[in-house]
Structures are given as C-alpha cells and as structure tokens.
Amino acid sequence: MTDALTVSDLTKKYDTITAVNDVSFSVKVGDVLGFLGPNGAGKSTTMKMITGFLQPDAGEVVVLGKSMHTHPLLAKAAIGYLPEGSPLYGDMTVINFLGFMAQMRGITEIKKKGAAINRAVSRMQLQSVLRQPIDTLSKGFKRRVGFAQAILHNPKVLILDEPTDGLDPNQKHQIRQLIRDMAKEKAIVISTHILEEVEAICTRAIILNQGKIVLDSTPQQMQLEAQEQRHVIVHVPRAQSDKLLPTLLKINGIIKVEFQQADDPTQAALRIHGEKDLALLDTVHKVLSDHQLQASQIRMETARVEDMFRKVTLGTMN
What we know:
Strand content: 25-35%
Shape: elongated
Largest sheet: 6 strands, mixed
Low-confidence stretches: none
Distance between the termini: 39 Å
Order of helices and strands: EEEHEEHEHHHEHEHEEHEHEEHEH
Number of helices: 11
Number of strands: 14
Structural class: alpha/beta
Oligomer: single chain
C-alpha cells in the first residue's frame, strides 16, 4: 500500500538550538503511529511542520503524493489537524464554528455541509452543546469540538496532538475507539505523553529525544525489548535484608538489587533486576526458601512501553 504521509529529513532550528534533527518516517492508511518523547523533544514542532504551520529549514513532507512545499494547498486539504490545546473561537457557538470550519475547508454546498457537520457532531457526541458558546464548555467538550473540526472534511491523514487531553476516562475510551474505527481508512499520527494510549490504540510508535528519532518500533516489540531486563519486587523484614542482598548478587543472571521505600517501616523492599533468560521469580523463591526467609510480598513487574521509553530517553530501565 502506498504511503499516505512521507516525512523526509525534516529539520528545524531556532538560533543555535536544533529542535528537530533529520527526522524521517512514513505512515500508511491503516497505521496509527504514536509519536512520543519527553517535553521539549520536538514533537509539536514536527507536527506543525507536517501540517504546514511551520516551514522546515530542511527536508520535505509529502501527503498523498503532494509536496507540502510545492503544492501546499493540496497537501493541507488532505490533512485533518487537532493542535495542542485546541485553539478555538470562544465567542462562537459550536454549530456556528463547525459551519465556519466547513466553509474554510471548501464544503460550501448546503446539503454536503450539513451532512459533514452532522457526521462530525455524531462521532464526537456534541448534540447537547451545539448552541452553546465554546467559551462556556468544559475542557473535555472543547477538545471534542477541536477533534470534530479536524474530521469535518473526511481527510485521509489525521494529525492529532494530545487528542485525549482533558477528557475523563469514559470520554478517553470513546475517542480511542473512534480512532481505531477511523484508522481502517486513514493514516493517523498521534502525539501523546500518555504511554498507555500507545499500548491501547497504536500499531507503531516512534520515540523522539532531543529532536532525533531514537526508536521506531511497534508497542508489542517495545514490550518484548523491555523484557530483556525483568524485575521482581520482594518485601522482607528489614533485619533480614542484609542477609538476602549478598546472596542474590552472587547468582548468575541477576544484574542488580535496589532498595525501595516500603510502606511498612519494619519491611525492606528490594527491586531485583534479572536477565531475560533467568527464571527470576523461581530463583528468588528458592533463595528465600533456602535461607528460611519470609516475604510479606513478592511479585513480578510486567514490562511496559514506559520501560522502553525510559531506556531510550534516559538510558535506564528503572
């Protein structure tokens, strides 16, 4: 399948600071790409260049075969964009705002405009606030109005910057399901700091750090790679921890043991890091049994996308 969005060697500098450094990737229809990174990594700057709001210093963006540089109007027409913070005209009612945005998108024929608005209103469940000024809406409803304007013209490419920001858990579930449904016929890029969102809806994830791509993978593969180091948490009486620690460190495959804060001051919490080939939980159980130590708590920590995120941005799995 042909790429719906191609980003090639994208670079943006501000004086001596390189905000985005030689970023390249492509997205096909059916893909939901999670765009991740710590604050200041260059995510929003990249989004703004993809959508034509910012001019890159180098590189190219191509949308459905149209270059953002040579054919900006055609490229932008194929994109739906939900910017961070959903900037809206607060004094307009929801229905008037969506009508205005439909007009700006070239949907001028009355019947088609009505159908487009009705479709977006229904998908975002905005029926109850259509006549309200946008300034009177909750943060969650404002976000949904911003999402509605992004899908009015049924674009093939959706660029969503923090799409569930400000939504309650039920609303987040609804928006995530909507994104899954729309992905069947669209290429979607989501910038988010909510890592569970990547695991829930993304088919692929890119992590940006200091303006560069440091990982391009799938959420499933990220979890598998994170499992190269596994962790067991053990709570034992504080007086026994000194006896347990040196024994654990002598075992092949145990990388390190760290002390953590336990809720009970009489207990010591140990976080035990082991290599993926080690049956870590069984090993810890055997050590406890051999030394007749009683653990008040013992559990294996499941690898998450968050673990890989921390590894590639901070150089740690802790």
